[in-house]
Design a protein that fits this description.
homodimer, alpha+beta, BirA Bifunctional Protein, domain 2, Rossmann fold, Translation Initiation Factor IF3, eleven-stranded mixed sheet
């Protein structure tokens, strides 16, 4: 399985592509830029969904479903929104096929042309705010706290599995509030939930902060984000939470009668994470032997492999494994016993190593005699022999330890790859090497764009509670009061 | 809430539309034929999904995700498939918008025309079998047991909320097998799961059987279905399971090396249910006072409403309700306590009655004194006063009783509305009145189509284990060996 597997050192980008496809997470489909998410990859996504869905519901949100199609005219209602998305819209123009004249093929039926073209949603603010207008009359109808799990389409020119695909899966929250304060509070609450999920489930440390005006969402007043650092020193935006002000309420004329009996525009937020998180998960932790999955998101947490020569040995092992498996499952640990006789133990060892299963147990006839079992950790690759008796308790603790260890390791990596720089030369050097580069910036989009032009680095975020200090912009030399986080990014 | 609510007697179709929208299940969107599934409706769909997803996984299926887009050429590979779906395909032809020449609007950018048009999946056999070709080499790769939860698009001319919408949500299973026998077994296994779900979760009795050649899926060898009877005497196809033979394997050239070292075409099944089930759920049970939901699928199983005049009374009630609620939740019963002061108890009573909450509890100051509580059942509308002590046990049992009662009631309705007829006149009369009409048919598509033309009735199903008997086709008078089920259908 891990044969002919490119190392990170050799070619990070190729390492990632091979890992995603060879570990059965996803593959490219026949349609340009669209992926097939394979069962093993989808099982991880389902775990992500379940964890986040619970977090959303625990904070009062409900799920709903809005149409895939957006009438073209809706797009035009919010000026910056259309500007941001127009260039990547897939457009439905017809609704019927017919046989071609030679009778051999099929062609689009020109008689079935839509009067108004439909856009496949790249995000749903427009169709949702057109709906909210009907739902909101008075303050009694607020807040509306809705989330949607859906597919969206953005016609990307350069695509990569999970990181940037034409169609992707995501969740998008869309909330409506009486006041600006309440909407800002919601925006930050969801940012916290995303950070909590990234750190405590994915074991990926993230910076929380504000996007610069150049990088913010098309239609937002403020965009907040969580940013993670990948092993190649590039940043990955992992989730965004937008304070939309009254922009969409005004565009779609959504007003409510306040307690003071006045008609006011409604305040809005939207927030989303996508299957991009799968890319972050893979790139943050995996190594040259394959995936490394945090126990909380691993579809299989423990794999057990029998080592035997004779059929009766297998029978004895299987009997013992049955008990071990049950004891583990009682503790809500997911276990796979791989007793297939079509593959050798060595093959299975590298298979599960490659697929990032956190703990591997191996058991043979001698272990049965000794009441022992071999345990291997995927994160550290360490092996040890342990008593079978009470192994379920050891594993329960160990899974937590692995989860914590993976986070600590990723955090240490980020800390070692975060740099403060004060000169332009230093900046260029560090940006080339990779990592988060904390530098002063004069606050103008002009400078931001010039820095991007010259170095490909962007402002990833202006951290929340950012220390204020006197400094000079590394590019323009103009005065600045805080450092912002620069990096090259996915 | 239930004011101005049309009765079934007055206008069944209008009753349905009003019920779906006023009970906050779904509403029409700005896009023709597409619906917004509102939070209350979506919560029911989520419960349906969770129950079925578990059934699928318990029988060895895994979830995955395939692209929304299907290249036009894929469609043409299976002849009957393209014939069945070509007339209802939404087609993507362009991938970019641009500003119009006057600068005020946006238009499709003609420079961004796709070389090959993309179809929005009406079902995914083609894109999935194109993928399976890459996944299947030998018998070791089989079976593949995959399910997908997704949105699909069929451009319907006449749409109705849940029953027939341009975009709908569904699950589609696609499996690949070594032998015909194994594939047929899978087809029937999934049919059983659908019937189990319909009867034991939705409380809707269904007939299991085969579709006639005219009604079968475009591309299937055999289509099996579950058919339910609605209160207006019309049938509703609630799920289908297809034995696809080697049709798609041949169309997409999917072969495997057998144990005997021969190259063989793979055998296939596909099976699906959709948000249409929401329509069946509503129409099978609801009445002129609103929704009636089976406890297993009700988002709120018990609602508690306080009856009070003074704030301190509410305080005392709330204290007691807190305990009742906890006791119920310990038994996995979902409870809502509606202590809003913006609505009167009477309003709340009809609100929850309309929304089909299975059990309503009301509690006032006198109840507190007596240690009693008023319980109302939604299915029978019966009320009684019960001791608070141990109410959680009573309710636990009662929820099961309501679930069973709803099924029995629906079953009785179906039995009373299933008729055997032997003459054409009798047939026409019964079909007009509604219900399942069991009649002899000569087995030819010609007769089936003529009967449909003259009466709008279709063959809903040829039941499994259908009793064999000598008879004459009600239409042609030709000999027949079994009765089939006719009805008008949604």
């Amino acid at each position: 399985m891990a044969k002919n597997f490119t190392t990170r050192e050799e070619n990070y980008s190729q390492w990632y592509n091979e890992l995603v496809t060879k570990a059965d997470l996803a593959e490219n489909s026949a349609v340009r830029g669209c992926m097939v998410i394979k069962p093993y990859g989808y099982a991880i996504w389902e775990k992500m969904q379940a964890a986040m869905d619970k977090m959303f519901k625990d904070t009062g949100h409900e799920n709903a479903y809005f149409p895939l199609f957006i009438p073209k005219s809706f797009f035009n209602k919010e000026a910056s929104h259309v500007k941001g998305f127009a260039k990547e819209c897939a457009v439905v123009t017809h609704y019927r096929l017919k046989s071609s004249e030679d009778g051999k093929g099929i062609v689009v039926d020109e008689d079935a042309k839509l009067e108004e073209e439909l856009i496949l949603r790249p995000t749903s603010e427009t169709v949702i705010w057109d709906t909210y207008r009907k739902w909101i009359q008075s303050y009694r109808d607020l807040p509306i706290l809705i989330n949607q799990w859906a597919n969206v389409v953005r016609w990307e020119m350069r695509t990569r599995l999970f990181l940037r695909t034409t169609e992707f899966l995501w969740q998008e929250g869309h909330t409506a509030h009486e006041t600006s304060e309440e909407a800002v509070e919601e925006t930050l609450k969801m940012l916290d939930i995303y950070a909590d999920f990234a750190e405590n489930w994915m074991a990926v440390p993230v910076l929380k902060g504000l996007k610069s005006p150049v990088e913010k969402f098309a239609g937002a007043v403020d965009t907040y984000c969580i940013e993670a650092l990948m092993q190649d020193g590039k940043a990955l935006q992992s989730g965004t939470s937008h304070f939309l002000g009254q922009n969409f309420a005004k565009a779609f004329d959504v007003k409510y009668l306040s307690k003071e009996n006045k008609l006011e525009y409604v305040w809005a937020t939207s927030w989303g994470v996508s299957t991009r998180l799968m890319g972050a998960l893979v790139m943050a932790h995996s190594d040259d032997k394959g995936l490394v999955l945090p126990p909380k998101l691993a579809p299989i947490q423990v794999v057990i492999i029998p080592i035997y020569k004779e059929p009766d040995q297998l029978e004895q092992i299987t009997e013992k494994v049955k008990i071990i498996k049950e004891n583990l499952e009682t503790k809500d640990i997911s276990v796979k016993y791989d007793d297939r006789d079509t593959y050798k133990p060595g093959w299975k060892f590298s298979e599960y190593e490659f697929k990032g299963v956190p703990i591997r147990l191996a058991i043979g006839p001698r272990d049965l005699e000794n009441g022992s079992i071999e345990l291997a950790r995927r994160d550290t690759l360490k092996k040890e022999i342990l008593p079978i008796e009470g192994i379920e308790n050891v594993i329960k603790k160990l899974l937590k330890e692995i989860q914590d260890n993976m986070f600590e390791k990723a955090l240490k990596f980020r800390e070692e790859n975060t740099f403060e720089v004060d000169t332009w030369d230093e900046f260029k050097a560090k940006i080339t090497e990779g990592g988060f580069v904390m530098a002063h910036w004069d606050g103008t989009p002009e400078t931001e764009l010039k820095i991007k032009e010259e170095t490909k680095a962007t402002i990833r975020t202006i951290p929340l509670n950012n220390p204020q200090e006197v400094g000079k912009c590394i590019y323009s030399g103009k005065p600045s009061t805080e450092r912002v986080v620069f990096a090259k990014a996915y």
